[in-house]
Amino acid sequence: MYLKIEETIVKLITEAFQKASDRDLLPPVSLPPIELQIPRDNAHGDLASNIAMKVASQARRPPAETAKVILSLIEPELNQDTEIVRIEADPRKGFINFTINPSTLHEALRVILLSPGQWGESKAGEGKTALLEFISANPTGPLTVAHGRQAAVGDVLANLMKKAGFQVDREYYLNDRGRQMKILGSSVYLRRRQLHGEELDFPGEYYQGEYIINLARGIPDDLPVAEGKKFSELSEAEAIEYCGSYASTILLGMIKEELRDFGVKMDGWVSETELVAAGDVEKVLGELAERGSTYEKDDALWFRASSYGDEKDRVLRKSGGDLTYLSSDVAYHQEKYGRGYSAILDFWGPDHHGYIARLKGSMEALGLDPGILEIVIVQLTTLYEGKKKLSMSTRQGEFISLRQVLDEVGKDAARYFFVRRRKESHLDFDLELARSQTNENPVYYVQYAHARINSIFKKYTEKTGLDLPEFGQVDLAHLREPSELEVIKKLILFPGLIESAALTRQPHLLPAYLEDLAAIFHSYYNQHRVIGEDPEMTAARLALARGVQAVIAEGLDILGISAPDSM
User: What pLDDT does 5 receive?
Assistant: First the structure.
């Protein structure tokens, strides 16, 4: 089986560190994902690793010295037949530089051409399972822009992890009980009374959006709504309960439709109401009590969260008997653990950061490994129309919904822009830029590279009257220009990029890679004629273009974005 050159280098570095430890040349180190990059100066080789810098604190010596030790252990492994013709250590910064045999670069391109759509696959997650729970908004209103970013980040990371060999499930947790659901019912009930002519004050803490009025309009006057009763025959408490149930059902349908249009398909939906009804919450509270992790005070049940790293203890059941969100979350996460996942990822907004210690602490209190639970914080988004900042206030229901963003810029641009920045960083989303069809729009720029290559192929067939070459059979040795080899080196980095993005949970690395690849190809195309007088050179350059197109298409597919043939 063909071993990707990047895999070969990673294997050599990993084995060298192990030998260095075994021979007491370096202390044992825990290697992070080994990433390769293309040096800015060709004199420093074709690919470089900064691993010596990454482990400097563990190795307890300067990176250049560590790189020298690793170099000395790799060099004996090289021979005349190797894919690597030279290796050197940067004496200043500690980079380990590798010069690749051009034939190896050509062989890598051939593999891409023979198996389009599969180049980025790896076995990093083989045998591992992961559950990603994201969005999980209360069914009390339409999905917002914040939910949209979380949806895109979660879905793309799930695709990345699947590409890296993990078995992945996506899940949505419905907080469909408690105070917010009661407020939803009261909001719809009061709006309905107002629609029927009553002059009533509408409390500020109630849901204010126009959608509440629309929901109130949908409740029939003269049809049975509950136990054969018409709405007018219900008591106020029954009417509010019905309004909440009716509204949440409609809103959940809207949420599912929005996610479908956004390209997000959940594998499971878990209801908090069903968890409580099934007795799961009471069961887990009993287990915590048996383990001595709860106590009663002021007629409430408390979790000893401060014993597990939280700043203070937390209430599980209030003095009036109502369960808190924490009690349901503990039961839900215990159930997640019970399914045997290798990794459990929760995607939360920045306002939930303080919740991490108590939830992880509850898992530890139940005798479960808190390390399996990963909390992924996704920062908020600010929308702009050019330089104009748009209002995101929810106080008066004036929020901008995910649906509005989809209607404005479409699924492709929305998903791309939501993922493009680090999830830990605040995102400024320019709707005007996302709509534009210029090279300044990053998603357009990447998609255009794919479409441009298609136009090259069309031009070739029209000019020559011939079908495209059998790319897997083309003599790629004609690709000798430095700019051509530069393109291939960028293609070589794709599998490692996918693996790194999946393992470090950083999906923004993929758009950055695709933009770099598109830029390198656009630059190459502007310098060199792809369709020339020499048939063999033309075939080789068409093959190179096809390799770029295949990797761009594979990357866009992971992002859940279309790869257009024309633009």
Answer: 87
The ranges assigned to domains in the chain are: 5-100, 134-277+379-435, 442-559
Please, where are the H alpha helices in 115-235? 145-163, 179-195, 210-217
Q: Which residues contact 287 (CB under 8 A, 6 or more apart)?
A: 334, 366
The CA distance from 494 to 559, in Å, is: 14
H or E stretch at 185: helix 179-195
Q: pLDDT tens for residues 302-324?
A: 999 999 999 999 999 999 999 99
> What's the pLDDT tens digit per position in 350-370?
999 999 999 999 999 999 999
Percent of the chain scored above 70 by pLDDT? 98
Structural fold of domain 5-100: Gyrase A; domain 2 (3.30.1360)
Query: What's the DSSP call for residue 127?
Result: T
C-alpha radius of gyration, the chain, whole number: 28
Domains 5-100 and 442-559 share a fold: no
Q: Which CATH class is domain 442-559?
A: mainly alpha
Q: Please spell the DSSP secondary structure of 31-52, one letter per residue.
A: -----EE--SSGGG-SEEE-HH
Q: Which two tokens stand for residue 144?
A: 């917002």
Report the alpha-carbon distance of residue 222 to residue 243 in Å, rounded: 15
| Residue 3 scores a pLDDT above 90 | no
- Given this structure, which CATH class describes domain 134-277+379-435? alpha beta
Per-residue confidence (pLDDT) for residue 397, from 0 to 100? 55
